[in-house]
Amino acid sequence: MAFGMHDSAADLDGDMMNEINMTPLVDVMLVLLIIFIITVPVMKHALHVELPRATTQPQTVKPDVNQLSIDAQGAYFWNQKPITLEALEPLLRAEAEKAPQPELHIRGDKAARYEFVMTAMAQARQAGLKKIAFISEPGTK
User: Fold this and answer.
1) Residues 101 and 86 sit within 8 Å (Cβ to Cβ)
2) Is residue 140 part of a domain?
3) What phi and psi, each to the nearest 5 degrees, are found at residue 71?
4) How many domains, the chain?
5) pTM, to two decimals
6) CATH number of the domain residue 105 falls in
């Protein structure tokens, strides 16, 4: 029996073709071989970059932390002391000039209007403070 030829006599006898057709398997293997030949040189290409060295010493000087609280009525408190919005701007500028620059933690009341918190945050950014964080209480489910 020739390969790929249909034998009508074999159909009458009920014989099944018991040979595995290897052509599709060889085709797939050749395609995979070509893909690997193309991709291996690309994977070996490396770009040499000189990375900075990091020190593993713990930071001994911790920056100061200032707290700016805003209550539900829109009143501002600098480290638990009441302050007006006009007096806040020069205070923020003075803190921004310090080295290392202190962190500013903004604690806004849940009932405070968004406007009050954003005004304080905008003044802090205009003053030059780079480390601004919001403080919140963990919620319950």
Assistant:
1) no
2) no
3) -90, 180
4) 1
5) 0.56
6) 3.30.420.270
